[in-house]
Design brief:
The protein is mainly alpha-helical. The protein is built from nine helices and no strands. The radius of gyration is 18 Å and the shape is elongated.
Length: 188
């Protein structure tokens, strides 16, 4: 049985039944994806294959071995809805971090850039995270100022602000990446 990043043992059936306490759908799905990759599709029990297919952690050709196309479409709608909910919460948490660490004017400028570049919509509705994740340019590229993108030298990490309680903008940028990409936040 594989471990999640915290060292906890999880099973596909256990994740399907109750998820991971204090973690969102995308985090739980990533752990399940790691279990499937470690175990291998052929080593999964039939029930685990069905669950992995429902959670979209299998490529399409393997999902077709488990579910019909119509079932996949229904599962895809659930996957999309739950992913949007998780990304919406992550973005909300990231914005709260920015608002609480920077001045009002600085926060408005950063959040305004998210909106002006359509980064929020691309991230929430379509899952576009950025070139560092194999997508088109996206919100993560803006946060770190990825080389070779339009955000090089003008990303969040490149700003000259002084975030409260942090050494510099690089530290805030790392925190925002941790929230948006990995779903690590305290949901109060």
């Amino acid at each position: 049985m594989p471990l999640d990043p915290s060292g906890t043992l999880y099973t596909i059936t256990g994740l399907n039944a109750s998820g991971i306490p204090s973690r969102d759908y995308k985090f739980t799905r990533r752990v399940m994806k790691n279990i499937v990759a470690t175990s291998g599709f052929n080593n999964l029990r039939p029930a685990e294959r069905r669950i992995a297919s429902r959670w979209f952690v299998l490529p399409g050709y393997l999902r077709l071995r488990v579910h019909t196309l119509e079932e996949q479409m229904a599962n895809g709608r659930i996957f999309h809805r739950k992913s949007i909910q998780a990304r919406t919460t992550r973005l909300r948490q990231a914005k709260m971090e920015i608002w609480n660490r920077l001045t009002h004017a600085e926060s408005q400028e950063i959040i305004g850039d998210f909106n002006a570049e359509n980064l929020e919509n691309q991230y929430i509705d379509f899952g576009v995270e950025g070139t560092i994740k194999g997508d088109h340019e996206g919100i993560l590229d803006f946060v770190v100022g990825t080389s070779g993108t339009q955000y090089e030298h003008r990303g969040l990490a490149d700003q000259i602000y002084q975030p409260s309680g942090m050494a510099d903008m690089k530290e805030l940028s790392d925190r925002i990446i941790d929230i948006l990409e990995r779903g690590n936040y305290d949901d109060v």
